[in-house]
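the two lines:
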Amino acid sequence: MSWNPLTLLLGDASSDQVVPPKGRSTWLTGFASGAMAFIAVFALTLSLAVGRLADYWTLDLARTATVQIVAEEGEMAAQTQAALQVLRTSPGVVSAEVLNPEAQLALLKPWLGSNLSVATLPLPQLIEVRLGPDGPDVESLKLRLAAEAPGASFDDQNYWRTPILEAAERLKLMVAISLALTLLVTMIIVVISAQNALTANQSIIRTLRLLGARDSYIARAFVRRVTLRATIGALVGMVLAMLVVFSFPATSSETGLLVGLSLQGADWVYPLLVPLLVAISTFFTSRIAARYHLHTEA
Amino acid sequence: MISLKNAGFSYGSRAILENVTQELAAGSFHFLTGPSGAGKTTLLKMCYLSLTPNSGALEVLGQDVAGLTREQITQMRRRIGVVHQDCQFLNHLTIRQNIALPLLVAGKNIEDNMENLEDLLDWVDMAHRADAFPEEISGGERQRLALARAVIMDPDMIVADEPTGNVDWEMGQRLLTLLVELNKMGKTILLATHDLNLIRSVKGRVPASVLRLKEGQLSLAGAQL
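prediction for all of em together
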């Protein structure tokens, strides 16, 4: 008989019969692979969320900038107009719009509440700037602003965006390592489980050999059992993790800062790969473990 | 069928069999006797290819066992029916499934052999217990089940290690009758026992010889039965 992984799906009742349906490692294998799948789905979800966050910081925020004007009340309007003029005539700037008092109040609302009047606060004037794909020559722009509107300061958010991006990249790397470690631990558990099952059923293996069973037949029976247990455990773990992820609160696009920790759109397909990966890795890992065990016990 | 030439076996420095030379012809019936610890089980294990001699030569089913590949051993084991004193069943399988086990592991279709399986159940008088589990049946029934399992592949040789050790006289006679029937069908029988009454009771039913194993040496004991 061949070692076709499809037999795992189609079933091989003949070999399955020879392994006792219950064993010490039954519960352990299923639970361990379920727990690993649960962790893997979370790590995957986090990885995707961090990826989206990094994209957001990289693509969306990289194309915005803010000009803040701090000036005496009598000069505020003139400096604002001067700054607008500089910005609108600078290559790489798509648009420059003065943030109206209501919009500024909305930005402050989370910190100061809604009962404040903008008029009572000495707020600077903000100009929202949208940049083109190549962006402006920032140093030249700053020099021009300093000359035309001394109270204006240009903020392209680079000073705080860069470390966040670096942190996001590090986080993605950590998540990738976590996923790899999760898979490695799962494989180690599978090896131990397969060896436990083989050791616990040594008398059955002796009997089967005396009755003319090939080692490949015996190995296949144990591999199938271990793989099915691990896969079912991983499926349960995946479903539970997906339910938890599904229950994450939706993120309002208005906040902008957080892009949502839950899975989005086609991302929901990725967790489905976890049990598949567990099944494939368990199949080959337990097969190697079983054949090695039977070879050394011969 | 089996040819031993100066065959020896030892566990470490402890010699169990020394210079054993004996020929067992195809279709013959042999009792193997000797005191406990004389090496009867070791000799039987060599005959069903569970052990290989440390010295000398052993041929089973016409093949020198030295240098046999795993696949060759597997194929040869399918031609040897083994009955152990402790039977060695798979307790999670029914009587019928245990008897069919050699077919299963050989990749044969059970459905195609169902008639043969039912005949065997009738032959060992176990048809009424076919769906029971090994732990639910008596010692005598277990031995008959082991015999049925040993012959389902239509082997050339039956090797039985003290099959009547744990059963009463009547059950021992029933088992012996089944083995005699198999021998009349041309199967070679090698039966280890220390029950002299059992050996005497075969007289006149089939030609049989008694091999005595003592202090590592095998000899033909007494006259042909």
